[in-house]
């Protein structure tokens, strides 16, 4: 039985898959299985995976497209590992990722259910660290609610900084509290972390161990799915004590989208709304302040 099961959902990404698969199979912690779940691709995905000879690699195919969350859940149902990890078809792990995460988990409290790592989010020639340097600085303050590890329920209500590919999850977390919600058009990972947060603490590896690439067909660019995803998150978790954070984050993200397409007035309105909901958030204050400076200039 492998120690770690890695689930990789894919759809028509044969041109990108070798990088993602190789980065998993070349992990220094070799006691793993990699389950590639093909969500109904009509490209060369099946032939490509068949040509990669490794006994730890398994291929499963959906006859019809069901979405990434359903594909991950299929992989989970077929997995055998004590721990679950997730890779995306367009990303790359660093070779020491699983080794460092397992080592961190070994020294974490027994109630720890998830260990995640920092990562580089790469779009073209631009790269940014997540969690950001600002988040790291704020997390060091003794009074902060923006922690990076421990009981992260309140922190996660103010935004998600744990991408699916960065997480290593104890199997018992999924068995007790459910897998990915396939009805969520976006934020399936954020939804899972919010569901687990009341029951398990989170551990963190500060080294960036993942390169997450933003590609032209990335779902992260689907604005309609984003709006619907936020609505479902607010319906599910908005009643929690710090649930206003979800509404604030929604305005902040919509402000970012408006700014990206040059609509400065709408961006300013959203950043202002986010700041009113969460006046002590330095990220919201900085974003709103920038729009004021540009407006006055």
From TrEMBL:
<dbReference type="Pfam" id="PF00535">
    <property type="entry name" value="Glycos_transf_2"/>
</dbReference>
<keyword id="KW-0802">TPR repeat</keyword>
<feature type="domain" description="Glycosyltransferase 2-like">
    <location>
        <begin position="5"/>
        <end position="167"/>
    </location>
</feature>
<dbReference type="GO" id="GO:0016758">
    <property type="term" value="F:hexosyltransferase activity"/>
</dbReference>
<protein>
    <submittedName>
        <fullName>Glycosyltransferase family 2 protein</fullName>
    </submittedName>
</protein>
<feature type="repeat" description="TPR">
    <location>
        <begin position="248"/>
        <end position="281"/>
    </location>
</feature>
<dbReference type="InterPro" id="IPR029044">
    <property type="entry name" value="Nucleotide-diphossugar_trans"/>
</dbReference>
<keyword id="KW-0808">Transferase</keyword>
<dbReference type="InterPro" id="IPR019734">
    <property type="entry name" value="TPR_rpt"/>
</dbReference>
<dbReference type="InterPro" id="IPR001173">
    <property type="entry name" value="Glyco_trans_2-like"/>
</dbReference>
């Amino acid at each position: 039985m492998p120690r770690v099961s890695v689930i990789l959902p894919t759809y028509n990404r044969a041109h990108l898959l070798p990088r993602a698969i190789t980065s998993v199979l070349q992990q220094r912690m070799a006691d793993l299985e990699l389950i590639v779940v093909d969500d109904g691709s009509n490209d060369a995905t099946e032939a490509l995976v068949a040509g990669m000879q490794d006994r730890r690699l398994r291929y499963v195919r959906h006859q019809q497209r069901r979405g990434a969350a359903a594909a991950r859940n299929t992989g989970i149902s077929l997995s055998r590992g004590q721990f679950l990890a997730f890779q995306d078809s367009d990303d790359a792990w660093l070779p020491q990722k699983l080794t460092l995460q397992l080592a961190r988990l070994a020294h974490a409290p027994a109630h720890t259910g998830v260990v995640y790592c920092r990562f580089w989010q790469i779009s073209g020639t631009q790269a940014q660290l997540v969690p950001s340097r600002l988040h790291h600085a704020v997390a060091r303050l003794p009074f902060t609610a923006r922690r990076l590890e421990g009981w992260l329920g309140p922190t996660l209500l103010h935004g998600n900084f744990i991408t699916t590919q960065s997480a290593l999850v104890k199997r018992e977390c999924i068995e007790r509290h459910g897998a990915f919600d396939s009805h969520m058009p976006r934020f399936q990972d954020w939804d899972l972390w919010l569901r687990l947060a009341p029951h398990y603490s989170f551990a963190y590896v500060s080294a960036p161990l993942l390169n997450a690439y933003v590609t032209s067909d990335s779902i992260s660019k689907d604005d309609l799915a984003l709006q619907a995803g936020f609505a479902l998150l607010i319906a599910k978790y908005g009643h929690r004590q710090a649930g206003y954070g979800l509404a604030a984050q929604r305005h902040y993200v919509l402000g970012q989208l408006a700014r990206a397409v040059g609509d400065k007035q709408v961006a300013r309105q959203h950043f202002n709304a986010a700041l009113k909901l969460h006046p002590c958030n330095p990220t919201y204050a900085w974003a709103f302040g920038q729009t004021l400076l540009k407006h006055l200039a």
